[in-house]
Design goal:
The structure is a single chain. Helices cover 27% and strands 23% of the residues. By secondary structure, it is α+β, with helices and mostly antiparallel strands. It has 2 domains: 8-79 and 113-309, Pnp Oxidase, Chain A; 339-451, UbiD C-terminal domain-like (3-Layer(aba) Sandwich). The strands form 6 sheets. Strands 5, 7, 8, 10, 11, 14 and 17 form a 7-stranded antiparallel sheet that branches. Strands 19-20-21-23-22 form a 5-stranded mixed sheet, with helices on both faces. Helix 5 (99-113) packs across helix 8 (232-240). The longest helix has 20 residues, at 319-338. The two termini are 40 Å apart.
């Protein structure tokens, strides 16, 4: 049965009950110190951290909430990470052939189950309201790495509205705090938030709201690569098996999460840019400084006893890796429906989810691996994949040693490597120019004569099954253990 967390504090209590949260009562500095503590704990696969005494702020800070497979599964209302892959197949009568079809079906299902998002009049997040006196310096915003340009809001749910359809979108884009009333808005041109902004009236301020905290499933939904004009609150309501509650913002025409800890309201003005960055990013490198829109604060609302959520990103593995792995599992059934030959996919943590994909396929015709590469590069954010490695269905894509063995031994570089060009993630610093560069597809499948390999292909070395069974049955007799 799905588990429901209505807000951040319910999730914190749940983690503490299971020994997955530690409270730190010693005073800590939001400038670098919290990040270093969190990084050490994250690298050691440790618990979520609640810093109760933060220098310069009356608000506690929580980090590493999603920093394990278990905690990410719990945040999505499930008992184990393995369940995530089966959410869509179990929920729908038939697996859809596209992301849009999937979420149209989920919307209908949400209506039947009465778990569509709903609007309320009163909200915990509006217990305290600051408008003229709104000041970002009251928040314990972190500086994470020494060369960061300043303090950054790292776990924001950035809410915008499509000016044509009226559908709201929630994305997660870092925000550098410039002063008490302005931040950067680091949305890339591919992001829905940026698309909504560019489609809006250039002569009018573009309203934006930024939520911090709320239902854990909503934080995940903000990171998920949903089709444009699919509201993330729908996915969060489905995952949470309960409606995400929304309330009208105080100063902008947007609906915001009623159960959030904080909401920062404001606007972005066309034509106004400011230098933002560098920032120690999830690639493990500093993303370079560039010009981005400026977000102006018109109000800050929050719970009376608000908790400030933050994430630290850097060299993997870190918290964002588990959110990315959840997306890998959640969307796999749809990829398999679009490409029936696909057996499994692995996005290695070291590839930070844009740079490498390992795919196993059931090969039934020559050069099928190249077809799969091209098809994957056409699927949503898979277009950013710089390397795609294709192996046979007998290979476990999560066993990197076996995958490397297949690549190093099965590949003829001239015949089996495909070099092409296309969109890349803007954070890919290896490309000579932003947003675009070269990609590589590697066909590590067993080769056929029809693929230009006239020689006999050798079999993998495997012991016979009867001997395996015999040795297993007699193992204790050998006295090896």
């Amino acid at each position: 049965m799905p588990r429901t967390f209505k807000n951040l504090r319910e999730f914190i209590s749940f983690l503490e009950e299971r020994g997955h949260l530690r409270r730190i009562t010693a005073e800590v500095d939001p400038v670098l110190e919290i990040a270093e503590i969190t990084d050490r704990v994250s690298k050691a696969y440790g618990p979520a951290l609640l810093f109760e005494n933060v220098k310069g702020s009356s608000f506690p800070v929580v980090t590493n909430l999603f920093g394990s497979y278990e905690r990410t599964a719990w945040a999505l209302g499930r008992d184990s990470f393995d369940e995530i892959e089966h959410l869509i197949p179990h929920a729908l009568p038939s697996v859809p052939s596209s992301l849009r079809e999937a979420f149209a079906a989920l919307a209908q299902l949400a209506s039947l189950r009465k778990v569509k998002p709903r609007v309320v009049r009163r909200a915990p997040v509006q217990e305290v309201i600051h408008t003229d006196d709104a000041d970002l310096s009251s928040l314990p915003v972190l500086k994470c790495w020494p060369k960061d340009a300043g303090r950054f809001i790292t776990l924001p749910l950035v809410i915008t509205k499509d000016p044509e359809s009226g559908t709201q979108n929630i994305g997660m884009y870092r925000m550098q705090v410039f002063d008490g009333r302005t931040t950067g808005m680091h949305w890339h041109i591919h992001h829905d938030g940026a698309q909504n902004f560019m489609a809006s009236n250039p002569d009018e301020p573009f309203p934006v709201a930024v939520a911090l905290g709320g239902e854990p499933a909503l934080t995940y939904a903000a990171t998920a690569p949903l089709p444009r004009n699919i509201d993330e609150t729908l996915l969060a309501s489905f995952l949470n098996n309960a409606p995400v509650e929304l309330v009208k913002a105080v100063t902008v025409d947007l609906l915001v999460p009623a159960n959030a800890e904080f909401v920062i309201e404001g606007y972005v003005q066309h034509g106004e840019l400011r230098r933002e960055g560098p920032f120690g990013d999830h690639t493990g490198y500093y993303s370079l400084a560039d010009d981005y829109p400026v977000f102006h604060v018109t109000a800050i609302t929050h719970r009376a006893d608000a908790i400030y959520p933050a994430t630290i990103v850097g060299k993997p593995p870190m918290e964002d890796c588990y959110l990315g792995k959840a997306t890998e599992r959640f969307f796999l059934p749809i990829v398999k429906q679009v490409l029936p030959e696909v057996i499994d996919i692995d996005l290695p943590l070291e590839g930070v989810f844009h740079n490498c994909a390992i795919v196993s396929i059931k090969k039934t015709y020559p050069r099928q691996a190249q077809k799969v590469m091209s098809a994957l590069w056409s699927l949503g954010q898979m277009m950013f994949s710089k390397f795609i490695v294709v192996v046979d269905d007998t290979v476990n894509v999560h066993d990197y040693s076996t995958v490397a063995w297949k690549v190093f031994n099965n590949v003829d570089p001239k015949r089996d490597i495909l070099i092409t060009e296309g969109p890349l993630d803007v954070l890919d610093h290896s490309a000579p120019q932003p947003y675009f560069g070269h990609k590589m597809g590697i066909d590590a499948t067993r080769k056929w004569k029809e693929e230009g390999h006239p020689r006999e292909w050798p079999d993998d070395i495997e012991m016979s099954e009867d001997i395996k069974r015999l040795v297993t049955e007699r193992w204790k007799e050998y006295g090896i253990d």
